[in-house]
Amino acid sequence: MDTRFIVGNWKSNKTIDEAKQWLETFKIQTIPSENISIILCVPFTLLSICKDFVTANKIPVKLGVQDISPYSIGSYTGEIAASMVKGLADYVMIGHSERRKYFKETDEMLFLKTKEAKQEGLSVIYCVEDDFVAVPQGGVDLILYEPPTAIGTGTAQSGEEANKMAQKIFEKVGKPVLYGGSVNATNVKDFTGKPYIKGVGIGKASLQVSDFVALISAVSS
Fold this sequence. Notes:
Strand content: 15-25%
Number of strands: 8
Largest sheet: 8 strands, parallel, barrel
């Protein structure tokens, strides 16, 4: 069986204490690891804490950030450059639908972010809304397909529809395609059981350890 990727995205959630509690609860769970790669994308404020905890407890999770600056280090107040997270994160999520919607991020900006990430050795999870969205060729590692109608709505796309779109994207880009949008433990196999969907991106279902572990278990079953 191919590796299935599970990308948890905490978005703009969790204080330091809440993150510590999540990690303490997660570390005592039995986590299926065969043919599953778990990536947890956390806010910048929690990255160092999560890195130390995951390393010290040998938890089978890789860390990612949810965004980076399109610029390198310098006079860019408030920005986090790719080099600043190198060594703390393995992955960076670029172009999430919420970044495009609320922060008006353009393809040009996302291409710059991708270039910065790759120069620093970060693996890129590049988010797209359909097969027409431009993707930086050769600069991404995973494609996360997120239909806007499914993000945060509680209504996921059907597995068949998502698989058809994943096939189109894969044939265009040649990189593993994940599905994101209202995924939970009940419907996750509708997606990971399809030939062109190599994993899932999850938001709400990653915030509670019980939901997250149930989803991971469902994928491995």
